């Protein structure tokens, strides 16, 4: 079995981060903390925002939660309710849609185009806005497409956001996993007005290979941050004290291992992309970030493998799984069943083995 399903780095959490957690346990930092996070961690997060994005936040504008998913959930709960619409560009990460529904709001899904690198255009955004629209979800670098928005693209979307007085959730969890010299830009950094309307979501899960530690954070205007903290106060309370201490070490410590991890991801991306593009009839956008490829396999629809007709990417993914034991995630999970997602958070040997099998199988589709 070869799995290209992983949504997390295959690297270990760096040693100095683990040591910080162990030291925290020994020092008895095992009690309740302030609901929105310990001060040293909020300071580290504020410093990160200022150094990386030129964004200045006060400590009260930061809320630390149990992973970026929790930060997103809390944010959705406080920003929207029944009767509101949320613009969700597709393909999208699976949990946004469910979180919109959990908040009682309605998702307005907007299909982006492969030709545009799966990035929402101002025309597509304008078309989707109506009097009920309250919120836009942006995710750059994106899961599952790897799309990275440029400053100019964000500025153009920003004009419409201000014109229609929308709020934005900007999920920047893959910020550090970016290639080809691209620069991550946060829409919140473009103007004070956009900063006021944006909740930036980030966390330590992907950059520091800390998915199991469960630390994410939101940065927002004062009233929104207060509402998020209030909600958290009556639901989960603070995220784990020990994981918070470890996250301070992650953010303030040596960043060399992040660079090494990204360099290795870049190497794998190159290889996997080449192997996919070598398969006849497959197209694939070159992703600027994250650790996924999202190939278009539409040209195989209406054809058959050993008598089994393929109507969509889910059919093809099932055949690949059953026949050659390689797991890919059908695009339907992300809102588009013409594609599937492959994660390259696994070794080059595994990528080679898995792609040999997929290419061999696809060559037999008649
Ligand atoms: N946002 C995106 C786009 C993701 O892909 C993920 C995890 O897969 C998350 C948020 C959640 O991150 P965390 O593990 O910190 O909750």
TrEMBL record:
Cofactor: pyridoxal 5'-phosphate
Record InterPro entries: Aminotransferase_I/II_large, AspAT/PAT-like, NHTrfase_class1_PyrdxlP-BS, PyrdxlP-dep_Trfase, PyrdxlP-dep_Trfase_major, PyrdxlP-dep_Trfase_small
UniProt EC number: 2.6.1.-
Keywords noted in UniProt: Aminotransferase, Pyridoxal phosphate, Transferase
Protein's GO biological process: amino acid metabolic process
PROSITE patterns according to UniProt: AA_TRANSFER_CLASS_1 (PS00105)
Domain Aminotransferase class I/classII large: 2-358
Transmembrane segments: none
A Pfam family recorded for this sequence: Aminotran_1_2
Molecular function GO terms recorded: pyridoxal phosphate binding; transaminase activity
PANTHER family the UniProt entry points to: ASPARTATE AMINOTRANSFERASE
Family to which the UniProt record says this protein belongs: Belongs to the class-I pyridoxal-phosphate-dependent aminotransferase family.
Protein name: Aminotransferase
Native species: Pelotomaculum thermopropionicum (strain DSM 13744 / JCM 10971 / SI)
Lineage start: Bacteria, Bacillati, Bacillota, Clostridia, Eubacteriales
């Amino acid at each position: 079995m070869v799995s290209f399903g992983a949504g997390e780095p295959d690297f270990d959490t760096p040693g100095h981060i683990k040591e910080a957690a162990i030291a925290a346990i020994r020092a008895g930092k095992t009690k309740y903390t302030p609901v929105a996070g310990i001060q040293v961690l909020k300071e580290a997060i504020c410093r990160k925002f200022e150094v990386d994005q030129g964004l200045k936040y006060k400590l009260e504008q930061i809320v630390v939660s149990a992973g970026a998913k929790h930060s997103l959930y809390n944010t959705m709960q406080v920003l929207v309710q029944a009767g509101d619409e949320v613009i969700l560009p597709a393909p999208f990460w699976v949990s946004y849609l469910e979180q919109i529904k959990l908040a009682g709001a309605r998702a307005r899904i907007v299909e982006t185009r492969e030709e545009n690198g799966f990035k929402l255009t101002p025309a597509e955004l304008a078309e989707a806005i109506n009097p009920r629209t309250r919120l836009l979800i942006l995710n750059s670098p994106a899961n599952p497409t790897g799309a990275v928005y440029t400053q100019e693209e964000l500025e153009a979307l920003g004009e419409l956001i201000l014109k229609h007085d929308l709020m934005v959730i900007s999920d920047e969890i893959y910020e550090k996993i970016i290639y080809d010299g691209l620069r991550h830009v946060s829409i919140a950094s473009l103007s004070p007005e956009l900063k006021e309307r944006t909740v930036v979501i980030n966390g330590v899960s992907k950059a520091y290979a800390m998915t199991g530690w469960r630390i994410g954070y939101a940065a927002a205007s004062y009233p929104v941050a207060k509402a998020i903290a209030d909600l958290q106060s009556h639901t989960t309370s603070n995220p784990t004290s020990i994981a918070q201490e470890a996250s301070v070490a992650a953010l303030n410590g040596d960043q060399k291992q992040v660079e090494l991890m990204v360099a290795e991801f870049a190497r794998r991306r190159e290889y996997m992309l080449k192997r996919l593009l070598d398969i006849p009839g497959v197209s694939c956008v070159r992703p600027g970030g994250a650790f996924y490829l999202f190939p278009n396999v539409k040209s195989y629809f209406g054809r058959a493998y050993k008598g089994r007709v393929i109507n969509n990417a889910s059919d093809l993914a099932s055949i690949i799984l059953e026949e050659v034991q390689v797991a890919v995630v059908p695009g339907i999970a992300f809102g588009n069943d013409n594609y599937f997602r492959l994660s390259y958070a696994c070794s080059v040997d595994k990528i080679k083995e898995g792609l040999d099998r997929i290419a061999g199988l696809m060559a037999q589709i008649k």
